[in-house]
Design goal:
This protein has twelve helices and nine strands. It is 37% helix and 14% strand. It is an alpha/beta fold and 313 residues long. The radius of gyration is 19 Å and the shape is globular. It starts with 15 loop residues before the first helix and ends with a helix.
Length: 313
């Protein structure tokens, strides 16, 4: 089996059966990372360009590991060390990348829609690793995989996403995925950091953290994205932490077996306190581990779904 489209540009393009396919494939490929020799020949002879215009630690490293464990040849393309800083347009960059004949281009860009633009001008498979405040599909997929691993299913779960929703591509992709898979999603944050009419995406909204946390199965915290803010969205970080910071006392309102998630990087003492970030309910490091398996699954499926026997060789 394989994904219906040749690219992964967003969760919006995925049907529920495709989401399930990615999660099931990730589950079967996760075993590779537990082997003594963590490599299979699935993508031998294939080339992946990691084209990251925005800085990244977890996502880039995760994709690199996924590519290497599938035996792909990889090239990291950093905007700060490229002709981008000399004024080269995205179209010219796309044409030059295409001239190198890569099989995949994994792209992170500060402008929403940039991977979609690349997909129109390249024959390579494009994977969106985050475009502006628009989408981050592989993060939502690894979050869903982590939730399913802990809870068994996504349907019927109550999920609170708390923080800077306005600037968060992670929030948007998770809303699309979780509601599509039958979960109940509630967003929480200051009124200035909640997009207008976001309820149209099928989620609820509250500005009171205590209300958002009541009885939920999953608490997903988001960082304040100061680098995307060009106005005063709240009085101060201290005030934000007082109203929207997750600590052990507030977390008691969630279900007894609730889990805590965060896509990273964390602002400890602002949106999340160390007592819960490092506590037993936290699956934050599991998310990092699971990111490799999910990105392996995406590459594997976009490559055409090579026979599972070969992947396990």
């Amino acid at each position: 089996m394989q994904l219906k489209a040749p690219h992964l540009l967003g969760i919006e393009q995925l049907e529920p059966d495709e989401i399930t396919l990615v999660l099931d494939t990730a589950e079967s490929l996760a075993e590779i990372s537990r082997r003594e020799i963590k490599k299979v020949p699935t993508l031998r002879g294939r080339t992946v360009v990691n084209f990251f215009v925005e800085p990244s630690t977890r996502t880039l490293s995760s994709f690199e590991l996924a590519e290497k464990r599938l035996s792909a040849d990889t090239l990291n393309f950093s905007a700060s060390k490229s002709s981008f800083v000399k004024g080269e347009t995205l179209l010219d960059t796309a044409k030059n990348l295409e001239a190198m004949a890569p099989d995949f281009i994994v792209m992170r860009h500060n402008q929403a829609g940039a991977p979609h633009f690349l997909a129109r001008h390249c024959s390579s498979s494009i994977i969106n690793a985050g475009d502006g405040a628009h989408e981050h599909p592989t993060q939502a997929l690894l979050d869903a995989y982590t939730i399913r691993q802990r809870k068994g299913a996504l349907k019927g779960l109550r999920v609170a996403i708390i923080g800077d929703i306005l600037h968060s591509r992670v929030a948007r992709s998770n809303i699309l995925l979780l509601t599509r898979m039958g979960a109940e999603v509630t967003l929480c944050g200051p009124p200035t950091l909640i997009p207008r009419e976001v309820e149209r995406m099928g989620c609820g909204v509250t500005h009171r953290m205590e209300e958002a946390l009541e009885g939920v199965n999953v608490v997903m915290m988001l960082r304040i994205q100061l680098e995307r803010m060009h106005a005063g969205f709240f009085p101060s970080l201290r005030e934000y932490a007082r109203l929207y910071g997750l600590d052990a006392r507030r977390f008691q309102r969630a279900a007894n077996d609730a889990i805590i998630m965060h896509p990273g990087p964390m602002n400890r003492g602002v949106e999340i306190m160390s007592d819960v970030a490092d506590g037993n309910a936290s699956v934050i490091l599991e998310q990092v581990t699971n990111g490799v398996a999910v990105r392996m699954a995406v590459l594997y499926l976009l490559a055409g779904g090579v026979e599972r026997e070969e992947a396990a060789a």
